[in-house]
Amino acid sequence: MRLRLSLALAALLLIGPARLAGQDRRVADRLDPITAGEVQRLVDSARVVGLPTEPLVQKALEGNTLGASGDRIRAVVAALYGQLSRARAALGGQASDAEVTAAAAAIRAGVPADTLQRLRALRSGRSLVVPISVLADLVAEGTPPDRAYQSVFDLARDGRSDDDFLALRRRSQVPSQRAGPDAGEPPAPRPAPDPPGKP
Amino acid sequence: MTFMPGDRRPQPDDPTLRRVVAELRRPVAFDPAIDAGALRVIGAGRRRATWARSRRWLGLAAALAASVVIAVGVYRTAPAGPRSRPVLLRLVAPASSAVVVVGDFNDWNPAANPLEQTGAGEWTIRLELRPGRYRYTFLVDGREWKSDPAEPPAPDDDYGAPLSVLTVS
Question: What one-character DSSP code corresponds to residue A66?
């Protein structure tokens, strides 16, 4: 009897933190209940299938801070979930969360999965965070995709450092972006939405 | 020695009594091997009883320790991995009275990272970030979003505010 009681208590001690791990207080505290529930469901699902969960949380919190509606937040987080899934499938189970997050941004920008896989093969054993992030930036900024892929592949094939990839991106930035803060104010921004809080 | 009426007085030469007394006074000698074996059996019994008592507590302690390990692993805010690197963010906003930065590195919390005015119209903040890709924006005077002109714009500005991307190697 005592042994059973001990086993039950041990199970509770082990399961308790695991169950609590599925609940992100940041989401529950800052989003409306419906949105928080949907985001939490996606986060739980991501954890089960081995996707990084933090990008999903951050995307939801971003929407809250920027004053987006619950509907919009749910749609954006769900879309990101899909991008993370495709990124994980492209890079494999050994890829780090940071690599998968960067790859999701690249897929969002239009980089095909097989391009990511080729980059993985060219840079085996080294982090892909910076190369993929630079690739995503180049494509998103309008660099012709083939030229962007070839530039990044060349650096990866030569075993160049992360700083070399960042230098490539700086060289590719359009003049208004390369000018930096000393050049003066950026173009007129859009007005900020309402102050952060529950939508 | 007191004798009651009816008692039988001991007879000094009683052979039965002599035999009994001699038998009682005879020293008993055991084989030392038997002594050691008996002690081992007794000791093992005691150890089994002690182990049975402590096993329950050891089980609970192990479960508690495992629970703590899991909890620490789950709740720690800074995941293990590459070391963080200092990053300096800067915005020139001469007519502003307050600038904060929100992004993937601070839960998009406007209260987390206010910039300091470090020059004429220049606002800066130094962050420690792990390698990764971060999206962020500045909030000026609590009402105006401004991207960082020193970094690429984020292509995924899903919520309509101008964002920048910072890649930390």
Answer: T
